[in-house]
Specification:
By secondary structure, the protein is an all-beta fold. The chain is built from no helices and nine strands.
């Protein structure tokens, strides 16, 4: 859930609560002999509080606008899977690859994410917009 306030039809500030799930794992490329494999070794649930600033630059007719967005998400890990040691392997007749992984889920429970977005939006009706955006959250 996000709530926001628009200023002068060009700037918006938003905040709220977001519940999001993350998976962490690895991928291994072994070439043509064995192929590729991956694992998902850790799943986390987070609660995020974003603070987002959004700006619009309108075209002459005000039927379209360039948009940009910058935000910061304060995140709490609220639930993780159990700590464990896991193994993934792949093999053919002559070769084998085995990856051992140890997970410790008592890591940091608080982290931040920076969000950047650029895009363009078009006015379809009096209060309805169509948007195309590209974003990065990291």
């Amino acid at each position: 859930m996000l709530v926001g306030r628009e200023f002068h039809n060009n700037f918006t500030i938003e905040s709220g609560l977001i519940r999001k799930y993350y998976n962490q794992g690895y991928g291994v490329f072994t070439g043509k002999k064995l192929g590729n494999f991956s694992s998902v070794s850790r799943r986390s649930k987070t609660l995020q509080i974003p603070i987002v600033l959004r700006a619009k630059i309108y075209g002459k007719t005000k039927k379209w606008a360039f948009t940009s967005q910058l935000g910061y998400h304060l995140c709490w890990i609220t639930q993780t899977g159990p700590s464990a040691i896991s193994e993934s392997s792949i093999s053919n007749r002559n070769d084998a690859v085995t990856v051992w992984e140890s997970t410790n889920n008592s890591n940091i429970k608080l982290f931040g994410l920076l969000e950047t977005v650029i895009g363009i939006e078009w006015l379809l009706k009096k209060e309805m917009f169509f948007c195309v955006t590209s974003s990065y959250l990291g």
